[in-house]
Design goal:
This protein has about 400 residues and is α/β, with parallel strands linked by helices. It is built from 14 helices and nine strands. A seven-stranded mixed β-sheet has the order 1-2-3-4-5-6-7. The protein is globular. About 5% of the residues have low confidence. The longest helix is centred in the middle third of the chain and has 24 residues. Helix 2 crosses helix 3, helix 3 packs parallel to helix 4 and helix 4 crosses helix 6.
C-alpha cells in the first residue's frame, strides 16, 4: 500500500473528527506567551470554531490521532467493520501540525480524539504523549482538549488531565439499553466510573492550588461529555434526565448533544433517517434552562409532548409556560428574579435590566419593551402598572399566535 502523505492523513482524520461536537474551549485558565516565553495562547481571536461564554470565537485544530478502531459501535463511522479510508498520525506529526497551524494564525488550540488501536492504554498513552511534547518540549500555552478513553488505566487519564485544559469522556447514548444494543464494547459503569475519578481529581487539584501556589493544575477547564440523539429510541425527557444527573453527579462543564447522522455503509440496526436538527437545538435550549434559568429536569420534561419529546415549533420555555399558565401573569415590578426568568421572551440579560430599572421607577409596558428584544412574546405573561393581559394568557390559540411563522425562502 502506498505511503500516505501528511496532507492525505489530515484530510481523512480531520473529516473523521467532525462527528464529535464536544470541543468548545470555554472556561479554561488564561495563559499567553507575552514576554517571549512559550508558544500559543488561550485568549483572543484565532479548524473548528468554538465559542466561549463571552462570545469569543476560538479556532481549534480538531483531528483524530487515528480512525483505526478495535471497537464496533454501530453508530460510529470509524467502527472496525466500517468500509472507510484509514490513516494514523504519529504523536510528533500531530505536534508539528499544531505548531505550524498556530504560527500561521489558523488556530489557538488543539482538540484531539482517537479511535482505539491495540488497546485503550496504548491509545491513551499516545494522546498523552502529544500533549506532553507540546507542553514540555515546546512550552505550548494554547488550549488543549483531550478526549479520554474510559477503558484506560486511571493513572494514564490522570496524566492527560495534567497536560490538557479540558478532558472529556463521551457517554455516547442516554440509556443503558441503547448502549448495550449499539455499542456492545462499551460499559456505562466504566464510563461513569472514569468521570467520577476525574471529578474527584479536579476538586483535589483546586484544593491543592489554594494551599500551595505551585501545585500542578488538573484539567482547569473541567470535563464535558456528549450524547448522540436519535440513534436509539430514547425520548427527550430521558435525555434531559440523563443530562441533569450527569451535571449533578460529575460537575460537568457541558453536556453536548449530537443529532445522529446516517453514515456510509451503515449498520442495519440504525434508523434510516436522521432526527430533525431542530430537536438537537431544543435539547440545547432545555440544557440552558437547567443551567441558567433555575428549571429542574422534571420541569423541563413536563414541557414535552405526550411522546416525551419537546415540541419543535416552539422553544421549551414557551412550551412550559403554556402548560402551566397558572404561574402567569408575572408582575415585573414585584416578582422575584426566579419568576421573571420563567417568562417566555425574557433572557438573563433582560431580567437583569428589569431588576436594575425597577429600583428607580415603576415600570410600564413601554419600559419593558425598551429593555427586551421583543415585547410581543412577553405581553401575555406579564403585567405592569398600565398593562394586564386579562384573557390573553388563557386564549386557546395562544400557541399559534406566539409560534414562529413558517416562511418559504426565495430560491432566486
Amino acid at each position: 500500500m502506498a505511503q500516505q502523505t501528511l496532507r492525505q492523513k489530515l484530510e481523512i482524520l480531520a473529516d473523521a473528527a467532525k462527528y464529535d461536537a464536544s470541543c468548545a474551549s470555554s472556561g479554561t485558565a488564561k495563559k499567553n506567551s507575552l514576554g517571549g516565553k512559550g508558544v500559543g495562547s488561550t485568549e483572543g481571536m484565532g479548524i473548528c470554531h468554538a465559542y466561549a461564554p463571552d462570545g469569543r470565537c476560538i479556532s481549534l485544530l480538531k483531528i483524530l490521532l487515528t480512525n483505526h478502531c478495535i471497537f464496533d459501535c454501530h453508530y460510529c463511522i470509524n467502527r472496525k467493520s466500517s468500509n472507510v479510508a484509514r490513516a494514523r498520525f504519529t504523536p510528533r506529526e500531530v505536534v508539528d501540525l499544531t505548531l505550524n497551524f498556530y504560527r500561521r494564525n489558523y488556530i489557538e488550540g488543539l482538540f484531539l480524539s482517537s479511535g482505539i488501536v491495540r488497546s485503550a492504554n496504548h491509545t491513551m498513552e499516545q494522546l498523552v504523549e502529544v500533549a506532553r511534547i507540546l507542553r514540555e518540549e515546546h512550552d505550548f500555552r494554547g488550549y488543549i482538549h483531550l478526549k479520554t478513553i474510559p477503558e484506560a488505566d486511571a493513572e494514564i487519564i490522570h496524566q492527560a488531565g495534567l497536560y490538557a485544559d479540558r478532558v472529556s469522556i463521551n457517554v455516547e447514548l442516554p440509556t443503558q439499553a441503547g448502549l448495550t444494543r449499539l455499542a456492545p464494547d462499551k460499559n456505562a459503569g466504566q464510563i461513569e466510573g472514569a468521570m467520577g475519578r476525574t471529578r474527584a481529581r479536579i476538586i483535589e487539584a483546586k484544593d491543592e492550588r489554594k494551599r500551595f501556589r505551585h501545585a500542578p493544575r488538573f484539567a482547569p477547564a473541567g470535563q464535558s461529555t456528549q450524547m448522540i440523539v436519535g440513534a436509539d429510541d430514547a425520548n427527550d425527557a430521558a435525555i434531559i434526565g440523563k443530562a441533569s444527573r450527569l451535571y449533578g453527579a460529575f460537575g460537568l462543564r457541558r453536556v453536548y448533544y449530537s443529532a445522529f447522522s446516517p453514515i456510509p455503509d451503515a449498520s442495519a440496526v440504525l434508523p434510516l433517517k436522521r432526527p430533525p436538527l431542530l430537536r438537537e437545538h431544543r435539547l440545547y435550549q432545555s440544557d440552558w434552562l437547567m443551567r441558567f434559568y433555575g428549571f429542574a429536569a422534571q420541569e423541563v420534561a413536563d414541557a414535552a409532548e405526550a411522546d416525551g419529546n419537546l415540541p419543535l415549533d416552539i422553544d421549551p420555555k414557551l412550551a412550559w409556560a403554556l402548560k402551566f399558565r397558572a404561574s402567569f401573569p408575572v408582575d415585573v415590578n414585584r416578582a422575584a428574579k426566579e419568576q421573571l426568568l420563567r417568562v417566555p421572551g425574557l433572557g438573563t440579560t433582560a431580567v437583569g435590566r428589569i431588576l436594575a430599572a425597577r429600583r428607580h421607577r415603576t415600570l410600564r409596558l413601554d419600559d419593558v419593551a425598551r429593555l427586551t428584544a421583543s415585547v410581543a412574546k412577553v405581553r401575555p405573561f406579564i403585567c405592569t402598572i398600565d398593562w394586564r393581559p386579562t384573557l390573553l394568557t388563557d386564549r386557546a390559540d395562544l400557541r399559534r399566535l406566539l409560534a414562529p411563522r413558517q416562511e418559504q425562502l426565495e430560491l432566486f
